[in-house]
Amino acid sequence: MRVLGIETSCDETALAIVKKNDNGEFEVEKHLLASQVLVHSKFGGVVPEVAAREHIASIFPMLDELGIEKDGQGIDAIAVTAGPGLVPALRIGVELGKVLAWVWKKPLIAVNHLEGHIYSVWAHSTPIFPALCLLVSGGHTELILMKDHGDYEIIGMTRDDAAGEAFDKVAKLLDLGYPGGPAIAKLAEQGNPREIDFPRPMIDTDDYDFSFSGLKTAVKREVAEMSQKAQMAERENIAASFQAAVVETLVTKTMRAVEKYQPKSVILSGGVSANQSLRSSLKEILNKQCPEISFHAPELFLTGDNAIMIAIAGIYHAMKNEFIDPLTLVADPNMRLV
How many whole angstroms separate alpha carbon 104 and alpha carbon 89? Predict the structure, then answer.
């Protein structure tokens, strides 16, 4: 099966052709990505209308670059991110997917963006079910129990800011620019993670929910109490201590869920899964406490938004004949996983 994946949920324009071979392995035949980071960095964050215009400017030349026949010959289905995301951005990919499906007479698959992030690990590994997924991105922080393909149960989520959102806000407080995650991680390498005792919100609660708003406020208070000169000198320690608080909270909650649900695999996915401190900490404690449980995280180039993950998720939907009428599909910014 050969699927065209389309992703435009935020500020990355992505197209990919992914094939599932007879041996069950995935082959990425082509993968194109146009980033808008430099465009949005001047605004300190993503501007939806600007993102949509950038998608329009990029997506048609990228489609030509894929080299697909004008009648879609060789493509078995089209998978497109239908939500969640920014409405103006989502619509570009959704409408392209609908037009191609109609003109090429190919089946169309609506993929949930969060589901795509989960399936990013299938590009190079095969988790065993049941799998527990910690999905951490700029807009979402969730613990998801995946019992089978397409069978999800959300057992925990953030009650306010997502972890990635907290990284961006703290980066802004420290004048590190956008995107904040990589900037915080780089600065943290030079700091002492034990220098400042930031709170670990909800780390001792019996549930699997998260909260990062209070932690962000604690950082803001710490920065406000320093002189400008002191802030510059202490930025490394602030970054390191903040990152340590986020990582400890995420890992502790995940391991608590592992203890209760006893999964056979643990998946770390989403944009924040690129954070090396989080990846190494979760993998290390899982291997130490539960060596029988396999750990899976996407390759670094698949941690961000991409069309490979959308195509792979689409293939699993196609295998169950889960298609949608192009005339009825609309972009859904609040699309739920379950």
Answer: 23
Tally of helices (H runs) and strands (E runs) in the chain: 10, 10
DSSP-assigned letter for residue 174: T
Cα-based angle 34, 40, 46 (whole degrees, multiple of 5): 95
With a threshold of 0.85, does the pTM exceed it? Answer: yes
Buried b / exposed e over 244-276, threshold 16 CB at 10 Å, is bbbbbbbbebbbbbbeebebebbbbbbbbbbbe
Q: Which of 111, 109, 114, 54 is nearest to 82 (CA)?
A: 111
**Residue 218's pLDDT band (boundaries 50, 70, 90)?**
very high
Match domain 2-119+302-319 to its CATH number in 3.40.50.300, 3.40.1190.20, 3.40.50.720, 3.30.420.40. 3.30.420.40
Q: What is the pLDDT of residue 230?
A: 65
CA distances from 279 to 134, 195, 263, 296, 300 (A): 11, 22, 18, 10, 11
- By the 8 A CB rule, do 199 and 218 touch? yes
With H, G, I as helix, E, B as strand and everything else as coil, classify residue 111. Answer: strand
Residue 196 binned pLDDT confidence (cut-offs 50, 70, 90): very high
170, 122, 169, 113: which is closest to 142 by C-alpha?
113
Domain coordinates in residue numbering, the chain: 2-119+302-319, 128-297
∠ CA 182-179-192, nearest 5°, is: 40
